[in-house]
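Course assignment 3, question 2. Fill in each field.
Student: A.L.
Task: Predict the tertiary structure for the chain below.
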Amino acid sequence: MALPTMTGVGRLTADPELRFTSSSKAVASIPLAFNSRRLNQQTQQWEDGDVLYVRGTAWERLAEHAAESLEKGMEVVVTGELRTESWEKDGAKHERTALLIRSIAPSLAFATAKVTKVTSGASGPQQGAQQRGQAQQGRPQTSRPTQPPADDPWAVDAAKGYSNEPPF
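Answer field:
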């Protein structure tokens, strides 16, 4: 049976902690808090409701990008699979809810972000897995050009950092 998938808006309760496994895979621990805020109609003040604290884990490129881009207090939109982590310490069994993060990004509701596409290391583990998945599904493997076509209406002028022309 598949694990439940969750998509939500939460806040980082600490900076992501990036580590590497013995096989050199990046893993980031990302502590998250999800809470329900509501407007009290009588006082017209926002009140915090219940809070769900979840330890998120991201792997490989996503882990590295999250550690580089996110910090404590940021509001994020996150998607992943919920699971229960279990361990034993000093003879006592412990459990906690965890989230295997598949996607995470800053929420743009109250902030702005500048996105930079990563072009180096295109042959990394995730890229290779994606290409293998495409080949297994019968899709042709194509290489992306490094420069956008001249007639691409969404292309950005590298010298100016933007385009004056509307894309339509």
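Instructor remarks: Residues 122-145 have pLDDT under 50 and may be disordered. The longest strand covers residues 26-40.
Grade: pending
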